[in-house]
Amino acid sequence: MAAPQRSLTFRLAHSSLQLALRLWPEESRHWAQALTAELDEIQQPFEALQWALGGLVLFARASASHFLAWLKLPAGSRLSPTSLPPGTAAPLLPKRSRLFTAAVLVGTILLLYLPQSREDISTVRAS
Q1: What is the pTM of this model?
Q2: pLDDT at 60 (0 to 100)
Q3: pLDDT digits 0-9 by tens, 1-34
Q4: Whole-number Cα distances in Å, 6 to 11, 28, 97
Q5: Could you count the other beta carbons within 10 Å of the beta carbon of residue 59?
Q6: Separation CA 109–CA 126 (nearest Å)
Q7: β-bridge partners, 69
Q8: pLDDT the model gives residue 61
Q9: What's the farthest any 2 CA atoms get from each other in the chain?
Q10: How far apart are the C-alpha atoms of 47 and 51, rounded to whole Å?
């Protein structure tokens, strides 16, 4: 027996959750798989769309949490430890986080845009 034809709303909900599943951070991907599996049990198209929108909000929260955790790591390191051979030490990494590095960079750029800083730079170049 052929599967019943789904409405455009249901297909939109399903495809949006499938896209989110592909991009979902690895540490909470099981939540995305559960969301997608439960979507098939919903009969009403607009309820499916509401379910998918809730799933996309959850995806945004998981992605933001993953991004913030990544920012707290030292530059050059990864969020999840890679498979290092047993008995090998992790490489030496800087002790400052990416967030600290980004804040210093933004602060330096803002400082260089001050009129007095531009005047100082032109004085140093002229000397």
Answers
A1: 0.59
A2: 92
A3: 344 567 888 888 889 989 988 888 888 888 888 8
A4: 7, 29, 48
A5: 23
A6: 22
A7: none
A8: 92
A9: 86
A10: 6
Distance between CA atoms of 77 and 35, rounded to whole angstroms? Answer: 31
d(CA 64, CA 56): 12
Coil/strand/helix, residue 87:
coil
Residue whose entry in the numeric block shows the structure tokens 């330096």: 108
Of 73, 111, 110, 80, residue with least CA distance to 94 = 73
Residue 120 has which token pair? 């100082």
Phi-psi domain of 76 (left: phi exceeds 0; alpha: psi -120 through 50; beta: other): left
For residue 67, what pLDDT is reported?
A: 84
Taking a C-beta distance cutoff of 8 angstroms, is the pair 14, 39 a contact? yes
- Cβ-based neighbour number of residue 16 at 10 Å: 17
User: Who contacts 75 (Cβ-Cβ below 8 Å, separation ≥6)?
Assistant: 93, 94, 96, 97, 98, 101
Per residue in 62-96, pLDDT (tens digit) is: 988 888 887 777 766 665 555 445 555 555 555 66
